[in-house]
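Sequence in, structure out. Go.
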Amino acid sequence: MIFSFLHPLSFLNYLLKREINKFFASIAIRYFAIGMITIFEPIYIYKITHSLPFSLLFFAAVYGLYGILSPLGGISITKIGIKKSMLISHPFFIGFYICLLFLKSSVLWLFLLAIILRAIGMLFFWPAFHTDFSKFSRQSEEGKEVGKLNFICTFPGILAPLFGGIIIERFGYSTVFIVILCLLMASAIPLFLSREVYQIYTDSYKETIERIRKKKNRYLNLSLIAESCETGINFFLWPLFLIILGISFENIGGLSSVALMVGALFTLYMGKITDKIRPKRVLIAGSILTSGAWIGKYFVFDPISGFLAQSIYRLFRTSAQIPFQTIFYDKAKDHGSEMDEFIILREMIVNLSRSILFLVFSGIFLFTSKVNITFPFAAVFSLMFMLILKKTSSSKK
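Output:
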């Protein structure tokens, strides 16, 4: 029963029983910390710059730099190991939030430093994260493990946006940044308790590009691009749409927390369903429903309609996300000793495509401030999730 783990000490004890659960514990704390600011981060940059195009250029630079440097993440895994790589990411993320703490529109060098620190933090963290999960999750229960990962990432952070919104509304961004810094340091503790794992990465930049260009990876690449762009619109354009609509920080945080709760209650169920039913069927249904949810988001006009639209979206997005990730991690396992090369390929595609998307949108916003014109794009991207099913090498067909 899920609810038997609601007490924090029991929950933590449960997480630490298995090697992968030490990993989950660190991610849970980290996601709570980041969850307090994720939806408010693009709003913060927008409030400082007073410019939609510049705000998107900031994040385009972050993801573009990380996408270009991502093969170095594979080298990091080889040289220092997965756990140490994840640990090393923490000072860079902490430095990033310190930069945001003192950020002002007139201080260009601080923007540049924040971009570099965020990109390097991602460089050390995300390749190690995906490789670690792929290695330790059980192949026979991939959907269940993915559902568990999503639940553990989501459950501790259900109230995080609400807490973040209340803190920002009453005490300002500075206070929430300080809280986040403390939690990020705490999230490193479980990683010290887990054994080190190494994965040999051998690709050069040229070989990584060649993997991307292979015809057999065409549909996989397009599905990853679609998933990345849709996620980017939800994480960065949706909150900007809400704040421009005049919805308060507390209401935005509360809206996000309720939507996360809907997703959390549904995510473990979807993980089990994905193992019992063909992931293909679940993904097709989830992709179509998610696309429809984005059309509904286009017509949001107040907190109530926003709450309904985002709750429905979270429900439908979960039904697409679990099978999509299950298929992805199955594909990663199928690559065996080249698992990390496959992960790096994903990181480069996902982040460069999101960077290009934000560059395009920054140009569009030079002529309009209607953020919801990006939502139909998200609807199309949602339908493209299904491309991961074409010519799949997954063992679950």
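Check: The longest helix spans residues 303-334. DSSP finds 18 helices and no strands in the chain.
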